[in-house]
Structure formats: C-alpha cells, structure tokens
Write a sequence for this structure.
C-alpha cells in the first residue's frame, strides 16, 4: 500500500492506494495513524479512492484506529469509498459506524462542526 | 511472475519479496485446477490469489466473482497462517482450487491444532461491531455460498469454500 500524506487546514489527509491487507497495508495504516497522533493531529481523513482491497485485518485496523482516535478526543472519517469497499463496509455493518463522504471539501468542513 | 498453464506439468516459482517460501504448483485440466503448497508467510497470500485469478481466467469466470472469491481465499489463508500455523514459516498450507460442475471449490489446510468454528462470535452484533478482529470467517461466509470446516489430514484445520457460479453474491 502507498500512502500520501497531506495536511489541509487542521486535518491530516491520508491518500491510500493499493491493498490494506494482513501483514502489509494494515501495519502501514496503523503506523500512519500513530504518526498523526504523535504529531498532534486530532482530525484524520482517510481517502480510500485508490484502495483496491481491504481484508478483515485491514477493516480491523481501520476500526482500531477509529476507536483510538475517539478515545483521544479526535475524529477519523472516510472519503471516496469505491463500490467494492462500500460493499465490504455494508456487509460488516460498519457503514453505520464511520462518517463517510464522497466530497473532500465537505469532508474537511465537517471536522469544524 | 509468469505462470505456465495447461497439461499435467508442475512448476516452481520463487517467493514474493524476502520471506522464505516453498511453493509447488500443479496445473491440470486446462488450468482449471491448481494445487499449491506454501510456507506460512503472508506474502504468499498474494501468490495464491494470482494463481486463483489464472484458474478463474482460464474458466472464463467474470472478474467480479473472481474478486470476491479471492477475498474469501485471502481470509482462509490468513487464518491458516496466523491462527493455524501460528506464523511458523516452516509449517505448510495446502491449497486446492478446482472449477468443476458450475462451481469454484477451494480447500485450504493448515498444520495447526484445529479450531472450533462454533466458538466464533457474530462480528455484526452491537457488542462486537468495534472489535478490531474476528471478521475473517464472517468474510468467507459472505463472499462464498458454502463454507465448511473439518479436521485436516495434517492434524490442523481444512476449510472448504464453494461458490456456485450461477448464484449471485449476497451483500
């Protein structure tokens, strides 16, 4: 998995590309979130437009990052789900847990509210 | 990596990335059947998924079906490597893929100590929804039509995954 990091306003945006799967992408995602937290970023937006696969470990890592952020008083939101990633969040019923956007400015503005 | 297909031949390939792996591929019946023996490294999941894509491609199975069956295969392999073989890179995972009678059948067997699938909790129940693990077998059930666990000949777990090619995936 490749990760591009952008800081837009007060939001750390992670543009993810490739597979968030066991042994590689899941670990990289966790490190990116940990890095964001340790550098003082409380608002994280995961852009999933380039993500092709998320296995159960990847989903677990996303949930773990979401709860970690919430415990620290921060927020983690999702942007640009592909149809397949949307399907996965539907079947796991996590679609109701995450705050999901398909428009980046709208997603960024939502952190202010 | 290129994969040879067709006939009754056997092929060998080097592992992906840096981890040690033992791999044997046997293709048969116009590449609609494949047997693999992998060592327990996550990198080998990618290799198995590529072989599945070759098998499905040779049988003219659509990309959408191949994708979701591939996701189920990934989960079965992750379970075999992590929970079955406890990440012991010297332990094997055996895989048999077969397209026959309008079905894709996949068997994945590990050298672990077996497990009881009845002990698994529903990851979509409210109390489990935010757990960071416990969705692998759930994935398999969602993406395949039949999922059966039994004791394997190696002493571990053998899971059989079946997809009926005429059936639509429930989501």
């Amino acid at each position: 998995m490749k990760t591009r990091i952008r800081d837009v306003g007060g939001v750390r945006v992670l543009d993810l590309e490739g597979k968030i799967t066991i042994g590689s992408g899941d670990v990289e995602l966790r490190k990116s979130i940990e890095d964001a937290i340790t550098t003082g970023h409380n608002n994280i937006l995961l852009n999933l437009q380039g993500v092709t696969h998320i296995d159960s470990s990847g989903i677990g890592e996303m949930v773990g990052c979401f709860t970690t952020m919430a415990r620290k008083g921060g927020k983690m939101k999702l942007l640009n789900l592909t149809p397949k990633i949307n399907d996965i969040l539907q079947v796991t019923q996590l679609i109701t847990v995450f705050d999901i956007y398909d428009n980046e400015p709208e997603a960024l503005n939502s952190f202010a509210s | 990596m290129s994969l040879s297909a067709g006939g009754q031949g056997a092929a060998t390939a080097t592992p992906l990335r840096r981890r040690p792996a033992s791999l044997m591929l046997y293709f048969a019946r116009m590449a609609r059947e494949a047997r693999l023996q992998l060592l327990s490294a996550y990198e080998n999941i990618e290799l198995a998924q590529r072989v599945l894509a070759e098998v499905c491609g040779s049988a003219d199975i659509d990309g959408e079906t191949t994708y979701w069956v591939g996701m189920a295969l990934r989960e079965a392999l992750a379970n075999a490597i992590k929970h079955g073989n406890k990440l012991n890179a010297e332990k094997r995972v055996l895989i048999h893929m077969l397209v026959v009678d309008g079905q894709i059948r996949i068997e994945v067997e590990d050298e672990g100590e077996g497990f009881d699938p009845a002990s698994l909790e529903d990851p979509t129940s409210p109390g489990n929804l935010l757990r960071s693990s416990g969705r692998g077998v759930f994935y398999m059930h969602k993406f395949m039509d039949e999922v059966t666990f039994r004791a394997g000949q190696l002493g571990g777990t053998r899971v059989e995954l079946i997809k009926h090619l005429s059936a639509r995936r429930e989501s």
